[in-house]
Each structure stands twice: as structure tokens, then as C-alpha cells.
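Key result, reporting period 2: structure in, sequence out.
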């Protein structure tokens, strides 16, 4: 005869028995990265003559999303609440990684064919240099470190990779529609060189979009795969009993 008490004990999750721990260090780190993103965005808004143009860049949008997600995650970490859904945190991680990789390997690379280093509107001097470093280097590295060191592994799912691509696809539509309704010659009519219909035509832009889209999907799959195999960084354990004999640890 099955003991109902034993069955009930097995069905109770460990977090219902052992209270969730507050994580002030994780909260502090996430707050710093969120502040770095916010600082870079504020600098770009301050030195630009058009806030709407600044907000049209994928760089800015991905950093806004990251700042919000990390700020909420910091609050949950310090109050011992359940983390945000992996679909959201993983998406923010993917988008900021796209921002960093595209900037360093494409937009800031003279050999890429899509470099923006010669664009006078994007001259990297003074305050813009600081904002570039914050938005394209500091926040992507910070997000990856948070994922590797402060986030529980094994939570990302294969289906997430396809869902995440909805945002880059929506951004493509936004950029093309925005460029089509703006007057030719308007500064930053198309936010990135590989989306410039005047230079490449719609066929060329769609070809670029397919190449970048495949690269983004491969990156998403890489994150999901790495999340399954990366080790868990354990904090102090509850020594009441061993893991082999009890869910307490």
C-alpha cells in the first residue's frame, strides 16, 4: 500500500520547503549593467537633434529592453522572488548579443562592406565614444556574464529560438516602412547600411536580411545549446541533509 504522506512529500517542490535566498550581489551587478545601458541611451539622446531617430536604432531598443529586464531581475533577486521567464531573459540576452556582434564585426569593421565609421553622423568622438562603448561593449559583456554566472542553466528551450526571431523580423519591417515614408535625403533614413534600399534595392536588402536572419537564428540555437551544457555556479548549500536522501540542499 502506497503511503499518501510519502507521495505528497515527493510532489512538494524544494522551494516550498526551503525559502528562496536573497541575492544581493546578483541584484547589484544587474543594476550596474542596467545603469550602463541607461547612461549610454541618455548620452545619445542628449547629443542628438532627434530623439525619434535615436530610438529607431536596434542598438537603443535592445539596450532599453535589457535595462528593463535587468532592473526587474535585480528587484526579484534582492526580494527572493521567482526569476523572470527564460523566454524574456533569453530574448534580451540574444538581442544585446546581436547588437554587440553586429557593431564590432560589421558596423565598426571597414572590411565588412557595411561600415559606418566614415559616416559623419556617427563619428566616434567624445561623448559618442563613451556611449558606443557602453551600448555595444559593456552591456553585451555584462549580459553574458550575468547569464553565465548568475542565472540558473538549463532553462532555455529550442522553441524560444524561433520566437525570439519575431523581433528582428518586426524591426526589419519597421525600418523599411519608416524609410519608405521618409523624404529621400533625410539623415539616417535607413538606420543601418545593410538596410539601405537606396544603395542596395529591396532585393539586395532582403538578401542581406536573410543572411543576417540565419546568423541570428544560429546564435539563438548556440545560446540554447550552451545553456543546456554550461555548469551551474552553486552558492552556499543547506547542510541539513545530503542531496541523495532529500531535496534539501
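The corresponding designed sequence is given below.
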Amino acid at each position: 500500500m502506497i503511503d499518501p504522506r510519502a507521495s505528497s512529500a515527493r510532489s512538494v517542490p524544494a522551494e516550498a520547503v526551503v525559502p528562496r535566498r536573497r541575492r544581493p550581489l546578483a541584484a547589484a551587478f544587474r543594476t550596474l549593467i542596467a545603469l550602463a545601458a541607461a547612461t549610454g541611451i541618455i548620452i545619445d539622446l542628449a547629443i542628438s537633434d532627434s530623439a525619434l531617430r535615436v530610438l529607431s536604432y536596434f542598438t537603443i531598443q535592445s539596450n532599453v529592453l535589457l535595462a528593463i529586464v535587468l532592473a526587474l531581475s535585480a528587484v526579484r533577486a534582492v526580494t527572493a522572488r521567482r526569476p523572470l521567464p527564460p523566454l524574456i531573459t533569453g530574448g534580451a540576452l540574444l538581442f544585446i548579443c546581436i547588437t554587440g556582434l553586429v557593431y564590432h564585426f560589421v558596423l565598426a569593421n571597414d572590411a565588412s562592406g557595411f561600415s559606418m565609421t566614415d559616416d559623419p553622423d556617427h563619428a566616434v568622438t567624445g561623448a559618442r565614444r563613451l556611449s558606443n562603448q557602453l551600448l555595444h561593449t559593456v552591456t553585451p559583456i555584462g549580459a553574458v556574464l550575468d547569464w553565465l554566472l548568475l542565472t540558473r542553466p538549463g532553462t532555455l528551450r529550442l522553441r524560444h529560438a524561433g520566437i525570439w526571431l519575431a523581433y528582428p523580423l518586426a524591426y526589419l519591417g519597421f525600418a523599411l516602412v519608416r524609410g519608405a515614408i521618409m523624404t529621400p535625403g533625410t539623415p539616417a533614413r535607413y538606420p543601418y547600411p545593410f538596410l539601405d534600399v537606396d544603395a542596395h534595392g529591396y532585393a539586395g536588402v532582403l538578401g542581406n536580411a536573410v543572411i543576417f536572419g540565419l546568423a541570428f537564428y544560429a546564435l539563438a540555437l548556440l545560446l540554447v545549446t550552451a545553456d543546456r551544457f554550461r555548469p551551474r555556479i552553486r552558492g552556499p548549500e543547506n547542510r541539513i541533509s545530503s542531496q541523495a536522501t532529500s531535496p534539501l540542499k
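The chain has ten helices and no strands. The chain has one domain: 22-229. This case is discussed further under Risks and Mitigation.
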